[in-house]
Specification:
Largest sheet: 2 strands, antiparallel
Structural class: mainly alpha
Order of helices and strands: HHHHHHHHHHHHHEEEEHHHHEHHHHHHHE
Radius of gyration: 24 Å
Strand content: under 5%
Number of helices: 24
Shape: globular
Distance between the termini: 15 Å
Helix content: 40-55%
Oligomer: single chain
Length: about 475
């Protein structure tokens, strides 16, 4: 154990890690109230007017992907290609476009319209959620949703439906603070996750193992707690589910005749499992409790230092037979390791961007389209963390992986753009000598190191320059 944080630093850490920033006024109030009272307030379920004022976008169905699908839909009154049930025969591939006079294939306007519509849905979704994170008055619900999004990592790049991704996001937000079993039951038949892991149309004759494998490896049990036989048997238990894509958002449908009948043996239990009873069995195992606690610990306490055996026992005891996620988080924030000054976390790009926006009072929704693309879209793409588009089912990396040379350049460009959009009245009103300490308080930084303070002192005569330097300082890139 290193140095234990004092009360102010302790509540600042709580506000930052259970949210995205540490507003000076909120830190003052939390210091007066004390850590326990602040923790109660952070975790309590309450109406959030800020988040409530950011309703999700209305996303209609996407246009057809190609002319064959368009013709088929017109003739049969059915679904466009890209919306067909996977149990149905695959559509006839679109012929290669005929070369134009220049010798290059002519662009298919139908495909181009589809891709543009999908791109717009992806951008609208990301803009909306980032704006909601910035607007939230009680940001724990959004931070928790981001944690679960990384845990059940699903990408619109393969799902190709903004409505399905939004539906998943709402499920994670609604169920993320309760019984993990309820969340896991919902997720194994979540339409976006089904497409992402090829579970749509998995049948007794051709079971797909992807969802069963990732359910155990990443979502519920962890590596080393199952066998290849368990994967095959779990895949059989998950057969029979397809998607009804007539509706928006898509609906999961169970087709009994496509389900593998009879008992399967999965991690020591033999039963005629359904998707729900398979989840019930897996989440009841001690390995599941330890796995969920360990993954959340890495995101909220320390990526480098795993919980001690004693700490893990306390966490799983709090989680308990009801798999109470909020009780688990509460126990985690109360651990001595959470107050250990050495347990510093590197901010993930979304945390860094949202925290900076909140600190400087810039709302994405109030920016024009061009400014949003430059400030948010290009920044998060350049840093490697775009909401609704994780790189793999394993989620985004953590720790020092975000501290690259190329990322430093992206953060500099972001900081320069952000200060041009922000109201820096308080920085301008302060004297040059006061500005470094004002910015430390504004950004939730306990203290600048000697090297950073020297840089800020040199830039202090210019409000924009000193704020830009503070935004890219090492002390602002971590959750202390």
């Amino acid at each position: 154990m290193g140095r234990t944080l004092d009360t102010r630093a302790h509540v600042t850490r709580l506000l930052q890690r259970a949210g995205f920033d540490a507003d000076p006024g909120a830190v003052d109030e939390a210091e007066r109230a004390g850590f326990e009272a602040t923790l109660d307030r952070v975790l309590e379920a309450a109406t959030d007017k800020g988040a409530g004022a950011t309703p999700p976008p209305e996303l209609g169905p996407l246009p057809p992907r190609n002319n064959k699908a368009k013709e088929s839909k017109a003739k049969k009154g059915g679904r466009a290609e890209g919306q067909q049930d996977k149990a149905s025969p695959a559509p006839t591939p679109t012929p290669t476009p005929t070369p134009s006079a220049s010798g290059k294939p002519e662009k298919d306007p139908v495909r181009m319209a589809y891709r543009q519509a999908l791109k717009e849905q992806r951008e609208r979704l990301a803009d909306w959620w980032l704006d909601r994170m910035v607007a939230a008055e009680r940001p724990w619900a959004e931070k928790r949703t981001l944690l679960w999004h990384n845990h059940w990592a699903t990408s619109i790049q393969k799902v190709k439906s903004g409505a399905a991704m939004l539906q998943q996001n709402e499920t994670l937000r609604r169920l993320g603070g309760g019984d993990f079993r309820t969340l896991a039951r919902a997720m194994v038949v979540d339409p976006a996750l089904m497409v992402w892991l090829d579970a749509d149309g998995s049948s007794a004759k051709a079971p797909n193992e992807n969802l069963g494998r990732e359910l155990m490896e990443l979502f519920v049990l962890g590596v080393g707690n199952y066998t290849e036989s368990d994967v095959r048997q779990a895949a059989a238990a998950l057969t029979g589910w397809t998607l009804d894509r007539h509706e928006q958002p898509w609906k999961p449908r169970f087709r009994p005749r496509r389900h593998a009948q009879g008992p399967q043996t999965v991690v020591g239990a033999k039963a005629d499992f359904t998707a729900a009873t398979l989840v019930d069995h897996l989440v009841s195992l001690p390995a599941s409790h330890a796995h969920v606690a360990g993954r959340m610990w890495g995101a909220l306490v320390s990526h480098e230092n795993a919980p001690s055996k004693e700490a893990l026992a306390r966490l799983t005891s709090a989680y308990g037979p009801k798999r109470d996620s909020t009780a688990l988080f509460r126990a985690m924030f109360r651990e001595a390791a959470f107050a250990d000054a050495d347990n510093v976390l590197v901010k993930q790009p979304v945390e860094y961007v949202v925290g900076s926006l909140r600190a400087l009072g810039v709302r994405p929704a109030k920016l024009d389209e061009k400014a949003r693309r430059q400030l948010l879209g290009r920044t998060l793409a350049g840093l490697g963390q775009v909401p609704f588009a994780p790189d793999s089912v394993g989620g985004w990396p953590a720790g020092a992986a975000w501290l690259t040379t190329s990322a430093a350049q992206v953060r500099l460009q972001f900081a320069q753009q952000l200060v041009r959009k922000a109201d820096l009245g308080d920085v301008e009103d302060a004297s040059a000598a006061e500005r470094p300490d004002l910015l430390a308080r504004k950004l939730g930084v306990g203290a600048w190191g000697d090297a950073t303070r020297g840089v800020l002192r040199d830039a202090a005569k210019d409000p924009r320059a000193v704020t830009t330097a503070a935004l890219i300082a090492p002390e602002h890139l971590v959750l202390r």
